[in-house]
């Protein structure tokens, strides 16, 4: 009986530095290399993963780490179809994320491990991959992607400390509070404040454990709650708070308030 196989690729021109492969296969690949930084997991199945002259068993709760130009292969151990995710990232983008953590970084820094066994990172990576394939807005996808890789690269880099972080953080917060209606991108914040965009993200994560994008969404939702309490319609509220559309508003409202805008409008406690 022929086995049903599939391959899905996520790629978006708005985040061109990323490609995500989701597939099931028991094909055997020859040793090869990529000019990207790659990170992968088996969602189902066990593989033999080789990287240069070392060999590993890639199993549950393990991430395979492939630095640029590392000669590697990853093949199923049996005829059972493995289900796996493999993420390929442009090293220029990775370098900027790394530099936000350690300002001594001037070129991409190879990760000193071939495999990371860590259930927390495995689960977060799996969540990230599923989120990238979801119908969520691309800005939300980029947000969770950056959040994950700041945490991942921080495992292997020295963190830069800066005495000015409180002032920088306060200035950016004030700016976002005044401009919450706008969909301000991290690139716009970077240009306005003349700071590395990923440094800004790490700054917010260190201060309030939210990315700037997540903080801005929270500001929008807080204002939306006020407007709904005042009797504004859901469509007008979504528009007034600068959401891309009602679907974007609905998803983010439920995530933060744990109820729909309609239910909140009808049942909020004053």
Automatic annotation (TrEMBL):
<dbReference type="InterPro" id="IPR003313">
    <property type="entry name" value="AraC-bd"/>
</dbReference>
<keyword id="KW-0010">Activator</keyword>
<feature type="domain" description="HTH araC/xylS-type">
    <location>
        <begin position="170"/>
        <end position="267"/>
    </location>
</feature>
<dbReference type="InterPro" id="IPR018060">
    <property type="entry name" value="HTH_AraC"/>
</dbReference>
<keyword id="KW-0238">DNA-binding</keyword>
<protein>
    <submittedName>
        <fullName>Transcriptional regulator, AraC family</fullName>
    </submittedName>
</protein>
<dbReference type="InterPro" id="IPR009057">
    <property type="entry name" value="Homeodomain-like_sf"/>
</dbReference>
<keyword id="KW-0805">Transcription regulation</keyword>
<dbReference type="GO" id="GO:0003700">
    <property type="term" value="F:DNA-binding transcription factor activity"/>
</dbReference>
<dbReference type="GO" id="GO:0043565">
    <property type="term" value="F:sequence-specific DNA binding"/>
</dbReference>
<dbReference type="InterPro" id="IPR050204">
    <property type="entry name" value="AraC_XylS_family_regulators"/>
</dbReference>
<dbReference type="InterPro" id="IPR018062">
    <property type="entry name" value="HTH_AraC-typ_CS"/>
</dbReference>
<dbReference type="Pfam" id="PF12833">
    <property type="entry name" value="HTH_18"/>
</dbReference>
<dbReference type="InterPro" id="IPR037923">
    <property type="entry name" value="HTH-like"/>
</dbReference>
<keyword id="KW-0804">Transcription</keyword>
<dbReference type="Pfam" id="PF02311">
    <property type="entry name" value="AraC_binding"/>
</dbReference>
